[in-house]
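Hi V.,

Quick status before I head out on leave. The structure for the redesign project is tokenized and pasted below; the design run finished overnight.
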């Protein structure tokens, strides 16, 4: 197996960990002020954003802890280490955002039916301060690794907060200018729908990684054909599996059927170099074989079973 432990990767991971911690502190700190402001002004937009920021504070804290766990070495029981914890946290974050968005929509409907009085002036001041805090958090996180699902989940959380603050500002301006308070729950629902869309995308991508699906940027059958066509001594590739450990690090296992007399060590080395250099797969397990595949077998009735695809040169 080949391993990719570049110094750049470690540096980037450490930087992402610090960025997430800073964003968690910013979000959690202002969340209290925004919740108090929402109660005092009667604004659902502020309360919704505060509720979202509460979920985000917890989610960002979990994201930081996921980076912390990812730094630990592999164990006898967890042979791939803790890298996938980040993907699991990203999926959990998506579920948390989804739940908050549903609550916002329900509360908005209740307030639309019976609009409460809202203090537009204080609401505007608090919303502007919230926007400034969320912009700072977004800028901090934007410098991180965009290929990391965990980092992208953290960015989505802060982006949702930023949109919530912008909606609260717009609602406050309308209320101050016209006195029309239903704009508050209406804009809250708009933000909730945006949050639902981002949460769904995050959950779908994280679930794809957890289910060990082929990364969207890679074509498994195309890679198999490429190896069979460009690596000397390889007759066909089958039993090929390609997946991502954490949304950034790609891995593969495959069987390489070699021509008679081909050097197995040279062929395996060439395959791994091709996977890493041309396809971004840094961690691969290659099983060389001659003639019949070792995994082909007969059941008790004499029926032969084949597993996976075969791509000939």
């Amino acid at each position: 197996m080949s391993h990719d432990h570049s110094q750049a990767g470690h540096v980037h991971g450490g930087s992402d960990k610090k960025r997430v911690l800073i964003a968690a502190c910013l979000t959690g700190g202002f969340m209290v002020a925004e919740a108090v402001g929402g109660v005092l002004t009667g604004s659902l937009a502020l309360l919704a954003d505060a509720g979202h920021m509460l979920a985000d504070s917890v989610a960002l804290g979990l994201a930081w802890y996921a980076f912390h766990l990812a730094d630990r070495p592999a164990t006898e029981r967890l042979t791939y280490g803790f890298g996938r914890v980040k993907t699991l946290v990203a999926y959990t974050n998506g579920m948390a955002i989804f739940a908050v968005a549903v609550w916002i929509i329900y509360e908005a409907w209740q307030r639309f039916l019976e609009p409460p009085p809202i203090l537009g002036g204080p609401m505007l001041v608090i919303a502007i301060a919230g926007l400034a805090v969320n912009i700072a958090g977004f800028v901090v996180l934007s410098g991180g690794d965009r290929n990391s699902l965990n980092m992208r989940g953290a960015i989505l959380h802060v982006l949702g907060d930023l949109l919530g603050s912008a909606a609260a500002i717009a609602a406050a301006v309308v209320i101050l200018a016209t006195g029309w308070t239903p704009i508050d729950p209406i804009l809250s629902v708009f933000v909730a729908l945006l949050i639902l869309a981002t949460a769904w995308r995050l959950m779908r991508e994280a679930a794809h990684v957890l289910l060990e699906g082929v990364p969207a940027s890679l074509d498994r059958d195309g890679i198999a054909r490429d190896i069979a066509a460009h690596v000397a001594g390889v007759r066909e590739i089958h039993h090929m599996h390609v997946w991502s450990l954490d949304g950034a690090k790609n891995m593969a296992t495959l069987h390489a059927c070699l021509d008679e007399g081909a050097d197995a060590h040279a062929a395996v080395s060439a395959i791994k170099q091709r996977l890493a250099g041309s396809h971004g797969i840094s961690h691969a397990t290659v099983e060389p074989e001659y003639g019949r595949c070792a995994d082909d077998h007969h059941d008790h009735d004499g029926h032969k079973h084949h597993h996976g695809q075969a791509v000939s040169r």
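Above is the designed sequence. Residues 236 and 292 are 12 Å apart (CA to CA).

G. will cover questions while I'm gone.

Best,
W.
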